[in-house]
Write the structure tokens for this entry.
Amino acid sequence: MTATKSTYNKEDIWELISEVTDPEIPVLTIVDLGIARDVKYEDSTFVIRITPTYSGCPAMQAIEKEIEKKLRLNGIDNFEIKTDFSETWTTDWMTEDAKKRLKEYGIAPPGKTEKVDDFLKSLDSSGDHIPCPYCDSSNTELQSEFGSTACKAQYYCNDCDEPFEHFKCI
Amino acid sequence: MSTQTKTLTKKEALFEYLIRLADDRLILGHRLSEWCGHGPILEEDIALANVSLDYIGHAASLYEYAVEIEGEDRHRDDLVYFRNDVEFKNLKLTELPKGDFGFTIARQFLFASFSYFLYKELSEVDDEQFAGMIKKHLKEVKYHLRHSREWVLRLGDGTEESHERIQNSFDDIWTYVGELFYQDEVDEFLQEHKLAPDTASFKDEWKELVEGSLKEATLEVPDWDQYMVTGSRDGLHTEHLGHLLAEMQHLRRSYPDGNWQ
């Protein structure tokens, strides 16, 4: 808990929520992931706009609670968290630095989404050879389209014999 | 709300349409959740649970928007827990018992491929919030389609038993696929206002994908011209929906103001 101060501006709020991490992937913050979109000050209230990663992602509720906790611990009560669907969350919003940390953590980061956008043509390429985050080998295979969470697929590396997760492009 | 209303307003039509979409996803999501802890392999247990979560997430946002459109201060949960079977508008396809893994996959494939084409069109409708929501869901539907299609191929072109089971599943479920393309005055009204697509516009493309996948899986394509069931959009259901709702709703109805503490 940081010391509270009497007045805050939008930038302070942004900085505070920048410390909130994803409950499933603790090396990434909600700003790295592009979940937190912006903070506005309207009618004496800080409006924090967030956008959901996956529609049914249970982590979204946990994230909202974490934002709330963070702000209240700093003595801030005049805020509102708004979930916005008008922008569609995509893994393209993930920063390069975030992708690097994801890989170091053992999760193969998402590539560009162009391929999944041309979807019907990619229906057959389930054998996408996602590089292994441990040994960089491309001799890998898809084990399951869904991993421990909706955002991840399960792969296996035939070279280092390690199973690994891949953050899917969406 | 009756769909037979002569002078349908935009609000009524959109509310009804959102409810139909949401009910399909809620009921199918519930059916899929029945696999949790019972999947044939761990990966599939997890995959089906994830797809179920996606559907329930889609339903939640569609219900949320429906109550907002309705403007009567109802909570989205009221629509889930306090409506009776005749008030549900989900397709009969979605409420059929989960059956074996082959049946589940056959249903997933037919529903996901239909949703894919429907959502591609819906993501362009003239309503920013609705279209935005659908764009998000569409990204997830692509994974549902890829997942189920691969299993259709694997089961169809697999062992004698897997082939027979998935073939039987497609044969059994076929009579329910006609309803996917059912349209009435609600759809027509919304099409005029650019709020819903004409499902007939993508029917051939959908059939091509389904037939192509079944053939690739060495399966016979059942007869498209056979008898097809109807009625679910008017609240007519199979006997299975009542049992599903009893299970899904009983706790909330027993303790309407109950809260997790």
Q: What stands out?
A: The interface with chain A takes residues 43-44, 46-47, 50-58, 60-61, 116, 128-129, 132-133, 135-137, 139-140, 142-143, 145-147, 149-150, 209 of chain B (CB under 8 Å). The CA atoms of residues 65 and 245 of chain B lie 22 Å apart. Chain B has a mean pLDDT of 94.
